[in-house]
Amino acid sequence: MKFGVRQVGIVWMTISIGFLTVGCSGGKLSQCADVIKVVNQTVTDTKTITAGGTKGDIPTIEKLVTTFGKAAKDMESVNVDDEKLKVYKGQFVAMYRGATEINQRLLIAIKEKKSTILYEELRKSRKIFTPERSITQGISEYCKNPDAK
Q1: What is the DSSP letter of 22?
Q2: pLDDT for 118-139, tens place per residue?
Q3: What is the pLDDT, as a whole number, of residue 13?
Q4: SS3 for 4?
Q5: Contact call for residues 127 and 112 (beta carbons, < 8 A)
Q6: CA 44 → CA 5, 22, 27, 51, 73, distances in Å?
Q7: Alpha helices in 1-149 (DSSP H)
Q8: Which among 37, 136, 148, 38 is positioned nearest to 82, based on CA atoms?
Q9: Cβ neighbours around 17 below 10 Å, total
Q10: Residue 96 CB neighbour total at 10 angstroms
Q11: I need a labelling partner for 133 at 20 to 30 A (CA). Which of 3, 25, 46, 99 fits?
């Protein structure tokens, strides 16, 4: 099982570096940085967990459940006043919650040896991260342009 979250790391690092070189208004800069911090931490944690591959092993999937659950809670706690950032934040929360739920169902399917459910959840797992690239590109462009509304 490969997660698209891995590929986001490079983009987020680019955004972070962009913040150091581009002057943004304090509010938007701070809000962007807070959202990006949660995403970067999630990417780092996911890479660490999946470094050896998942291969359907229960301990790895349990760690992913915990990681995505924490990411959803952390993202929910980010204070965002900017309307566009609220949308991006909501999309990340939905993606992390969805990943948590799917991985929980994967665990059940593995433990109960229900291959039909397992394959369905694996399909859903790939699908949950489909909008990731779009979200990443959108927030990247928005946070690079301090005057965008």
Answers
A1: S
A2: 888 888 888 888 888 889 888 9
A3: 46
A4: coil
A5: no
A6: 9, 25, 26, 10, 17
A7: 5-21, 26-50, 58-77, 83-111, 115-128, 132-144
A8: 148
A9: 10
A10: 25
A11: 25
- The tokens for 87 are 């949308």
Q: What's the CA angle centered on 20, arms 15 and 22, to 5 degrees?
A: 80
Q: Could you tell me which of 7, 3, 13 has the C-alpha nearest to residue 64? A: 3
The span from the CA of 34 to the CA of 21, in Å, is: 17
Query: What is the per-residue pLDDT for 146?
Result: 58
Tokens of 83: 């309307």
- Let me know: does 16 contact 40? Beta carbons within 8 Å: yes
How many other CB atoms are there within 10 angstroms of residue 78's CB atom? 18
Residue carrying the six token digits 């462009």: 141
Number of Cβ within 10 Å of residue 20's Cβ equals: 6
pLDDT at residue 83 greater than cutoff 50: yes
Question: Considering Cα of 96, then 101, then 104, then 109, what sign does the dihedral take?
Answer: negative
**Tokens standing for 90?**
């909501």
- pLDDT digits 0-9 by tens, 37-80: 999 899 999 999 988 776 778 899 999 999 999 999 999 999 99
